[in-house]
Amino acid sequence: MNKLSAKTRITLTAPFTVWMAVFVVVPIGLVLFYALTDASGSFTLQNLSSIWAYRKTYVLSLELAFVATVLCLLLAYPLAYSISKMKARRQQTMVLLVMLPMWMNFLIRTYAWMTILEDTGLINTFLKSFLSLFGFQFQGFSMINTNGAIILGMVYNFLPYMILPIYTVLTKIDGSVIEAAKDLGADGFNIFTRVILPQSVPGIISGITMVFVPAVSTFIISKLLGGGMTFLIGDIIENYFLGNTGEVNYNVGAALSLVLMVLILISMGIMNRFDGEKDPKGGAPV
C-alpha cells in the first residue's frame, strides 16, 4: 500500500486542524489573555494573586471530584466486567440501558434527584408512610443541600463515562490469553489480577479522566443539590463571568479557570504515568 503524499495528509487533517484551532487553541488563548491582563488590557499578575483566597474551594472541589471518581470506578468496573461476559445481544441491551440516561438533558436528570432527596421528597415520603404503619414517627433524613448529595449527583451523571471505556477494553481482551492462564494453573484471582486487570488499565485511565475532569469543574450539580450551601470552584468561576453574586470580572474568572486547567493537566499527567508503566505488549506491570 502506497503511503499518502504530504499534500494529501495535509488536506485530510485540515478540517481537524481548523476545528482544534477554533474550539481549543483560541479559547485557551483568550483565557490566558484575560488571566494575565487587567480591565484595560495591560499585563498584570494581580489576577493570579487572588487565587490564594480560594485555596480551600480548590481543595474541596478536588476532594469531592476524587471521591466521586473513586465511587464511579468501584461501581463501574464490576458492572462493565459483567456486561463483557454476557452474550452479544444482551451486551447491546445492557449498553443501551447504561447510555439511556445520557439521552435526557443534564439539568432534568439533576432536578430529578432534587425531588428524590428533598425533605418532602420521594425517599422521605415513602419512609414516613411505611414506618407510620408500625407506629413510628419518622422525621426524615436531611439529604439535600449536603456534600453527599453533590457526590451522588456526580456519580449518577458521570457513571456512564466510566462504564463505557472499561467495557470497551474488556471486550477486546483475547479469550485465548485467559485460557492459556488457566492451562498454566492460574486460579480466578490470579487471572483477574495478572491478566484481566492489567489489560484493562487503559480503559480505567480513560474512565477516570472522563469522570474527574467534569466532576472537578462542575457547578450545576453543586448549585442544585448543594442548594448554594457548598461552593465549588466552578461556582466561583461562573459568578465572576456572569456576575450572579456581584460585578462581572472576566480577568479573575479567567485566572481561576487557568489554575483549574493546570490542576486538571497535572492530574491527567499523573494518571498517564500509571498507564505508561504497563507492559506495551499488554501484560502485567513491570
Please give a structural write-up.
The protein has about 290 residues and is an all-alpha fold. It has one domain: MetI-like fold (Orthogonal Bundle). The protein has 13 helices and no strands. The C terminus is likely disordered.
Main beta-sheet strand count, sense and barrel state: none
What is the assembly state of the chains in this entry? Answer: single chain
CATH architecture verdict: Orthogonal Bundle
Total domain units: 1
- Compute the average pLDDT: 89
Note the beta-strand portion: under 5%
As a whole number of angstroms, the C-alpha radius of gyration is: 24 Å
What is the β-strand count? 0
Low-confidence parts, pLDDT < 50 over ≥5 residues?
279-286
Q: CATH H level: which superfamily? A: MetI-like
Structural class: mainly alpha
Quickly count the helices.
13
Cα end-to-end separation: 36 Å
Q: Name the shape in a single word.
A: flat
Roughly what percent helix? over 70%
CATH topology name: MetI-like fold
Order of helices and strands: HHHHHHHHHHHHH
Under the CATH scheme, which class? Mainly Alpha
Care to give the gist of this entry?
With 286 residues, the protein is mainly alpha-helical. It has helices at residues 6-35, 46-49, 55-84, 88-99, 106-117, 122-132, 147-171, 175-183, 188-199, 201-217, 220-225, 233-242, 250-276. Helix 7 runs antiparallel to helix 10.
Kindly list the characteristics that best describe this protein:
single chain; 286 residues; mainly alpha; 13 helices; 72% helix; disordered C terminus
